[in-house]
Write a structure and sequence with these properties.
45% of the residues are buried. The protein has helices at 17-34, 55-63, 83-97, 111-116, 124-140, 178-187, 199-215, 237-258, 271-277, 285-291, 298-310, 327-340, and strands at 2-7, 38-41, 70-77, 101-106, 144-147, 152-156, 170-173, 191-192, 227-233, 293-296, 315-319. α1 runs parallel beside α12 (327-340). It has one domain (2-136, 167-345): Luciferase-like domain (TIM Barrel, Alpha-Beta Barrel), CATH 3.20.20. The protein is α/β, with parallel strands linked by helices and 346 residues long.
């Protein structure tokens, strides 16, 4: 079993962006020391949900402080970028890091982010497919040409080319959209599973995608799929719940809140005001604890991960720093995980 770290790089009210960046860097540097294979960050724009707007810049800072840890995007919202520019940035990171880059692509979900990028949301699916095709083409071909509905390039030679051959590993996120599932299954690249689906639904999606890929002549193994969960381990179940409730509530409330914006964002508004005026509640902490998060004692966590392993999952990602979890609690939990849980999977 390979273990990874993941973060949206959340920015709750009253916290300082520099401190958030310093804390996530410290978390990932410790992750390398404790034996985590990789660390992944999400891309979001114009929202407190995540400070990963310039995820490649942040990744370069962390790569400079590590030697073996792989850095991944989970996800890079490729329709919001010029594909050639994104291909250049990722290839540059791959060269600088000596080939420690993994790339997760996705369409994203926030109309407000597409609005600010001046990209029509209804074009997201075609831009998504074209951008990934073009980026992979630039990484693997000389004098590369591409002409799609949205992007065109003629006889281009990427500088620099990535170190990893034929290119940095590509993973593609999908949830319920059939068109995206079809594209991922036909791409020859593994699925990437985020934290937004309940665990039973996420496992079902993995099996569906493996079968769909096989029907298209591609081999997508369950063990290749990075599988991320909200995550925390403490000495007792009671302590684990007490440590995580406020942060997990903030995270799920922020997901709900930001979906109410087609334009603008919640950055200069107060979450408490939203909580007082909303007319529908998101999933409760207890629901998330039972169905989506891996939170509890070491023995409980071991049992949950082994249940995933029984389904064929061999690449598990821990989202410790959700909702502004205090750094001290994150690092303590990581050390307990390395001491009490990791040895069960060696």
């Amino acid at each position: 079993m390979d273990f990874a770290l993941f973060s949206h790089v959340p920015w709750p009210e009253g916290t300082d962006p520099k401190q958030v960046y310093d804390d996530i860097t410290e978390e990932f540097v410790l992750g390398e020391e404790l034996g985590f294979k990789s660390a992944w960050m999400a891309e979001h724009h114009f929202t407190r949900y995540g400070l990963g707007a310039a995820q490649n810049v942040l990744a370069s800072n962390i790569l400079a402080r590590t030697t073996t840890l792989r850095m991944g995007s989970a996800i890079a919202v490729s329709p919001l970028h010029l594909p050639a520019r994104l291909a250049e940035e990722i290839a540059t990171l791959d060269v600088l890091s000596g080939g420690r880059i993994d790339v997760g692509f996705g369409r994203g979900a926030a109309g407000s982010e597409y609005n600010v990028a001046n990209v029509p949301l209804e074009e997201s699916q075609t831009r998504f497919r074209e951008s990934i095709t073009m980026i992979e083409g630039l990484w693997t071909n000389k004098n590369y040409s591409f002409e799609g509905e949205h992007y065109k390039i003629t006889s281009a030679n990427l500088v620099p080319m990535p170190v990893q051959q034929p290119h940095p590993p590509i993973f593609i996120a999908a949830t319920r959209t059939k068109a995206t599932q079809e594209f991922v299954a036909g791409s020859g690249h593994p699925l990437l599973v985020g934290v937004v689906l309940d665990t039973v639904d996420a496992i079902a999606l993995c099996h569906t995608m493996v079968a769909l890929a096989k029907s298209k002549g591609n081999d997508m193994a369950m063990g290749q799929i990075p599988f991320f969960r909200y995550f925390y381990v403490a000495e007792t179940e009671e302590q684990a719940k007490a440590d995580t409730k406020e942060s997990l509530d903030w995270n799920i409330d922020m997901i709900q809140w930001r979906r109410t914006f087609d334009f603008g964002s919640e950055v200069y508004e107060k979450m408490e005001d939203f909580r007082k005026t909303r007319t529908e509640l998101p999933p409760s902490y207890d629901y998330l604890y039972e169905n989506r998060a891996f939170i509890g004692r070491p023995d409980q966590i071991i049992a949950k991960i082994k249940a995933l392993q029984d389904q064929g999952i061999e690449y598990f990602g821990c989202n410790y720093s959700f909702g502004g979890m205090p750094k001290e609690k994150v690092l303590k939990s990581m050390r307990l995980f390395a001491k009490e849980v990791m040895p069960a999977f060696k």
